[in-house]
Design a protein that fits this description.
The protein is α+β, with helices and mostly antiparallel strands. The protein is built from 4 helices and 8 strands, in the order E-E-H-H-E-H-H-E-E-E-E-E. Strand 1 and strand 2 form a beta hairpin.
Length: about 190
């Protein structure tokens, strides 16, 4: 039996692997199902065995929030309200889509082509120790300054549920996710 493969492309980005497109012109549905199952297995294997704290997938399912009208930075920031970590960690789906203003200390920076994936601690105790980690995806510019580990930042964006990543020790960690529109570095 001859199959015509229309497109099959694997895109490797960082530690994650994503399937860009897969299709078959074959009328044999069993072969099509086998191809899809093999593709899914390859993706699953790549994402569950990554031995780093780098997120195992790249942000592809949810885009950073953008304004459809010419909303100014000040107007966007004005609609963002502060949240406590426990509030967004305990009920992440309840707050999904809400605009948040969060202060924090950057503990990890992963940057590729001006797109940032950050791990940020957002709870400061009386001894200036920061705790309670969230994941932040950010594709803007911080007034042409790079974001670095140990930076103290104020982030304005949209809460987007939770994000699960694999730690260096191979454990999975699930944290709240913020899609940041603006980040001010202090």
């Amino acid at each position: 039996m001859i199959k015509k493969i229309m497109a099959f492309m694997i895109i490797a980005a960082g530690a994650g692997v994503g399937i860009a497109g897969c299709g078959s012109a074959s009328t044999d549905t069993a072969d099509s199902k086998t191809t899809a199952a093999t593709t899914t297995k390859a993706t699953t294997t790549a994402t569950t065995t990554a031995p780093t704290t780098t997120p195992t997938t790249t942000p592809t399912t949810t885009a950073a929030p953008t304004t459809t009208t010419k909303e100014s930075k000040e107007d966007f920031m004005a609609k963002c309200k502060p949240y406590e970590f426990k509030e967004i960690a305990r009920n992440p789906e309840e707050h999904k889509g809400e605009f948040a203003k969060l202060d924090g200390k950057v503990i990890q920076v992963m940057e590729e082509s001006g797109i940032y994936t950050l791990r940020v601690n957002i709870t400061k105790d009386k001894y200036d120790y920061w705790d309670d980690t969230i994941m932040v995806w950010y594709s803007g510019s911080s007034d042409n300054n790079r974001i670095l580990e140990d930076d103290i930042v104020t982030m304005y964006g949209m809460l987007d549920g939770v994000y699960t990543y694999t730690t260096v020790m191979g454990n999975e960690n699930t944290v709240p996710l913020l899609l940041a529109e603006y980040i001010d570095i202090h």
